[in-house]
């Protein structure tokens, strides 16, 4: 369990550094139209984490696309403030 916690902590720190390094005006950057933007990549990571944790805990996912709560549709989540939980 300690190895999992250590890896989670390392990945979290690296992710925060990566998000902080991107200027606000480039959060919507897409190298090509058919891929996620920089911000959407991190929404996708968060959504996946919520999904896995909800399944493991036997709880509802607050971002359940099947129930019409698609995090990609929420423009507020595409901000650095939301990504860093400020």
Helix count, DSSP H or I runs of 4 or more residues:
3
Give the distance, in angstroms, between the N- and C-terminal Cα atoms: 28 Å
Mean pLDDT across all amino acids:
85
SS elements, strand count: 0
- Beta fraction of the residues? under 5%
How does this structure look, described?
By secondary structure, the chain is mainly alpha-helical. The protein is 51% helix and 0% strand. It has helices at residues 2-21, 38-57, 80-83. It is globular. The model has no long low-confidence stretch (mean pLDDT 85).
Topology:
Elements (H helix, E strand, L loop, with lengths): L1 H20 L16 H20 L22 H4 L3
Give a quick summary of the entry.
The protein is mainly alpha-helical and 86 residues long.
Characteristic terms for this protein:
mainly alpha; 86 residues
């Amino acid at each position: 369990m300690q190895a999992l916690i250590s890896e989670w902590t390392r990945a979290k720190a690296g992710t925060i550094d990566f998000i902080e390094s991107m200027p606000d005006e480039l959060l919507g950057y897409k190298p090509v139209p058919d891929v996620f933007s920089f911000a959407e990549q991190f929404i996708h990571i968060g959504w996946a984490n919520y999904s896995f944790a909800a399944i493991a805990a036997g709880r509802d996912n607050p971002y359940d696309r099947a129930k019409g709560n698609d995090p990609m549709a929420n423009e507020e989540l595409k901000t650095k403030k939301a990504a860093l939980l400020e």
